[in-house]
Design goal:
alpha+beta; three-stranded antiparallel β-sheet; two-stranded antiparallel ribbon; about 50% helix
Length: about 160
């Protein structure tokens, strides 16, 4: 399946080939772009699923490939909770997933701390768990994805 053919590059589902000579400076920039694409994929999938749900309701789930429902619903949920303006390119998707159940203000605090202190996902998870432990049980609301059945708790707004 030919996905993209542009600017001297032919990108297919299992290969990439150059269709013209590329100097090393341009190639270096291109490789950095590919690296960014790898880390951006989870966000892109989550954002497109949220956009499709807004446009088409629950029928958006028809576009999810077999075997991808759980991971793609995690991407969708995380992206619905952590807005693009809150996300930090220097942190992994997993960092954002850890703070997704928090209110935006708290997400920013923890993501800033994770960035400035180079916290691992595990260290960030421990910090967030301490805060969640302080939340009264009555403020937690059970949620469930209508498409895949994935369950989580979040603080009631």
């Amino acid at each position: 399946m030919n996905l993209v053919q542009s600017n001297g590059v032919k990108l297919e589902s299992t290969s990439l080939s150059l269709t013209r000579r590329m100097d090393l400076e341009e190639a270096g920039q291109f490789v950095l772009g590919l690296d960014s694409m790898e880390s951006g994929l989870s966000y892109w999938v989550g954002d497109i699923l949220n956009s499709l749900e807004a446009l088409h309701g629950e029928s958006y789930a028809q576009v999810i490939p077999e075997g991808k429902a759980h991971s793609w619903m995690v991407y969708k949920w995380t992206c619905s909770r952590v807005k693009p303006e809150t996300r930090r390119p220097s942190l992994s998707f997993s960092h954002h997933q850890v703070v997704a159940s928090l209110l935006t203000e708290r997400q920013n605090i923890y993501l800033t701390k994770a960035e400035s202190e180079s916290l691992s996902v595990s260290a960030l998870r421990k910090l967030v768990a301490k805060e969640k432990g302080k939340v009264e049980e009555s403020k937690l609301v059970d949620r469930q994805c209508p498409s895949c059945g994935w369950k989580w708790q979040e603080v009631e707004k």
